């Protein structure tokens, strides 16, 4: 019997109801949920009663008592999972989650760490340095959250020893599988980003840029079909309106750009080097320094604003345009588009260089190099499409 059949039996004993969907292995996506019959739009396909959730209230009391006050729910749930033995009542659930190897391979927080710098020759460059800027910023935030949580766990000296690597695995597992859940009590006592619970079976849905509706109330979580599905089709939920850089760091994968309407490319490394100190100061004063992006259809307003300075609009006039939300007319727009095409052509060379470097690297695992290469190729494609769209 497949491990997920055992999980379904266990979950059904706890009141979980599935209608017309079942877990299946899906190449490249671990387990996913697949329609076992034709589904209609608005059909309820899953119900998970609140009593089946793993929450801060189901954590072993000994653990909660041992952790410092203020320890995050994420940190606590991860430690609770790490302490589970095969005799745990949650074992059929634990048995289906991704292995430590697959978590470590896919999630950048677990990618090769800094090597031994006393060695000669020096260690190869870390793979994470090849993450695009928004992904790297997110990774740094994760690193600091993980350090905070691991510090808290180490203070719980009365607990069985967990190594940092073990804890990292469960911390990432928790990060990729929790759902937002608000009750009157959690709303009053926890920060928004800490109102997190784990739910069985629902955590087997993979992500798409649009998917089934996930809702919760006092009694249950429900998942409802957003459209009709054919038998055998994978049924997705949407984890949020995320660009691929976010998906890579938080979930360890990227979607093909044509399947991710929320994808965008950061242009800071293309635009910021073009700006003089003076222009940077002017932009900063108005809150327009950095955060430049483009997507498949548009170049963001912040980029448009910054490029108008570079296009030679006098600062006073530029301030007026910004304050009045004006674009300055067709001629100026043509000049800005031409400038952007020049900047993008230059940046394309940098992106090409990154792809070539990644192709020649041997550090890390093949999946890690491949996903980085794929991401930079996607960035190159989006840049090329914009050049094509704006070019003469
Ligand atoms: C909540 S779990 C979903 C179930 C998971 N596939 C499993 O095997 O348990 C989230 C993880 O599933 C994988 N995943 C989700 N959506 C995906 C997608 N569209 N493509 C590839 N992997 C995906 C990622 O590894 C992600 O971290």
UniProtKB/TrEMBL annotation:
CDD domains: SET_SETD4 (cd19177)
InterPro entries recorded: SET_dom, SET_dom_sf, SETD3_SETD6_MTase, SETD4_SET
SUPFAM superfamilies for this protein: SET domain
Signal peptide: none
Domain of life: Eukaryota
All residue ranges annotated as the SET domain in the record: 19-240
Pfam family, one: SET
GO function terms (MF aspect): protein-lysine N-methyltransferase activity
Chain segments annotated as transmembrane: none
Name of the protein: Ribosomal lysine N-methyltransferase set11
Organism placement in taxonomy: Eukaryota, Fungi, Dikarya, Ascomycota, Pezizomycotina
